[in-house]
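Notes, p. 3: input format for complexes.
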Amino acid sequence: MRSYSESMDPIRNPYAPGAGQRPPELAGRDIEVRQFEVVLERVAAGRPERSLVLSGLRGVGKTVLLNTLRSQAIKRAWGTGKIEARPDQSIRLPIAQALHTAMRELGHRHRDDEKVDEFSSVLKAFALRTAANDRKGIRWHPPVDVAAAKGRADSGDLEMDLIELFTDAADLAGDLSVGVGLFIDEMQDISADDLSALCAACHEISQQSAPLVVVGAGLPHLPAVLSASKSYSERLFRYIRVDRLARDACDRALMVPAESEGVQYDDEALDELYAQTDGYPYFVQAFAHATWDHAPTSPITITDVAVAAPEASAELTVGFFGSRYERATPAEREYMRAMAELGIGVDDGSVPTAEVASTLNRKPQSLSPARDGLIKKGLVFSAERGTVAFTVPHFGKFLRTRTA
Ligand SMILES: Nc1ncnc2c1ncn2[C@@H]1O[C@H](COP(=O)(O)OP(=O)(O)OP(=O)(O)O)[C@@H](O)[C@H]1O
Ligand SMILES: [Mg+2]
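Output follows (404 residues plus adenosine-5'-triphosphate):
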């Protein structure tokens, strides 16, 4: 029986579709959260521990999980900072900025002002080694109230400088019996040289048992990128795949926020939402959001889902798929359309690049620029040599319906 006493107030719609939007219920990530609690505790106690690297397709909730892990560190009074890596940009200045943030969280609790100032001057020296080209688009400036240190973290060699900077940051945190957490989103976009320097610095820091952890998030090929960079990466990081939600987690993601507003779902509505979204978190939020606005009352029914589905799909077409498609050049779009055609029946998994070439009647080498461009734009990744796959779930379906 429907209760007509409640009406579905759009203002109280709890769902949160959008990149990096914190979901009302973080479903299905309990293991990762617990694992990170252990990491924080062990690292602060000077015990050896691997940090986490999250990887997965677009919209599965990597950024949200990374932010959650950062909140856990903040709750434990750690100093934290976050960067979002960009292709063609050195990580030097972003890291300086992130550690500046971390230091601001720690500095005012530290008893030894001189030591805090010393760190500021090392941070400044580190930051001032940034090439003019790599400062573009970054508004942050190093602290002005101290002079740059000389002879520490300022050699220009990123690996050496990172080791010194990390050592000093960890030392400052260690005085307070906490640690430093550096969170890196879109980690696959770090250049090969910078990534190698970063891994080497993490390696050195972990050998010193200094309390600093780097937590990364990125596309599915990030573990492969890290392993290719340094063979010991697997010992530094615990690779965690962030994936679509299993059925029970998806139900929780839908029901828990609704319940707190006194709203229920029919079982059939839950079935239909899972069928429509495949449990992909971004889709779950988008469909739940639209369904809420269309449902006249609680409980939400399968009819409400069906009525709302076209609007949810339309929003995804523009906001999730379209915005990414727009970034591609005509040649790259042609490449993706060929991938989409080949993806029928294999659920848009990896397709061989040789087949893409033969579909387009082209020589494989002539398509390298398009493929490399798509990888750089984060639309496509190569999990295995000679294959490509979309980073965006359901992207093949989107392209097939688009051209139809
Ligand atoms: N565990 C979860 N339960 C429910 N909803 C979630 C969960 N994780 C993420 N979401 C929702 O999914 C959407 C995408 O999350 P997020 O931006 O973190 O994904 P992402 O993996 O970082 O994507 P991208 O690769 O595009 O950066 C957001 O609307 C968020 O609220
Ligand atoms: Mg993200």
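The chain has three domains: 30-241, 247-325, 328-400.
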